[in-house]
Amino acid sequence: xxxxxxxxxxxxxxxxxxxxxxxxxxxxxxxxxxxxxxxxxxxxxxxxxxxxxxxxxxxxxxxxxxxxxxxxxxxxxxxxxxxxxxxxxxxxxxxxxxxxxxxxxxxxxxxxxxxxxxxxxxxxxxxxxxxxxxxxxxxxxxxxxxxxxxxxxxxxxxxxxxxxxxxxxxxxxxxxxxxxxxxxxxxxxxxxxxxxxxxxxxxxxxxxxxxxxxxxxxxxxxxxxxxxxxxxxxxxxxxxxxxxxxxxxxxxxxxxxxxxxxxxxxxxxxxxxxxxxxxxxxxxxxxxxxxxxxxxxxx
Length: 299
Hints:
alpha+beta; six-stranded mixed β-sheet; 12 strands
């Protein structure tokens, strides 16, 4: 069922969106099924099992091209950090990470009023510019920048998705934080709708200049709704370009290790990716994504 929905480019209904998060790991039961069918000499069943195994294994490959088409000289080198601080609990850890890693743009999801105030105060010298969606719990979000920002209206959503235009290297760069609802049973339709609005943003800025779209997407490359965002905006996942497309970022605080990558930094064709690292932040159930980028002139 899961492999079939991936083949049909559909997230379908519960439990498919949730199960798609496990797609790479489903190669193990698929392999077991094929071996058992072969051992039982059930030729038709073995044939189907091998097809399912091959399809599942194929879809574990990284999605999209492995490079951008950036042209012209490099006009700015910048470091971007995207972090979910889990209701503000990882605010202190994020502050320490920013001081250590010195990113030029920071996307912060689940940043409540106390979190926003603490980050703004602690990082005022290094990152003096900000745009924020004010809220408590998971509804607050924040973008901090070393570059001047012109705030843009947030994407309508249950959790904050602020945006801004930054002047970087003489170019106007569209910044947008993505944080749609998770696809839990009972709100899959809302998850698809909010990712659809992120897709609309990506499509609207497809040919309008540099775009940096980052955050907790609550979706992996195995979800059709996330791939639609990439395709609509001609965007690239920085982790994929850095050879880390399957590095899991969630969940961190369970007895099992992280198993799915739902935190992303997406870049337009104006950028090249020099590297991506993943940071553990004490207090958060997500790993942060740190991307080193080159912005090109585009000529």
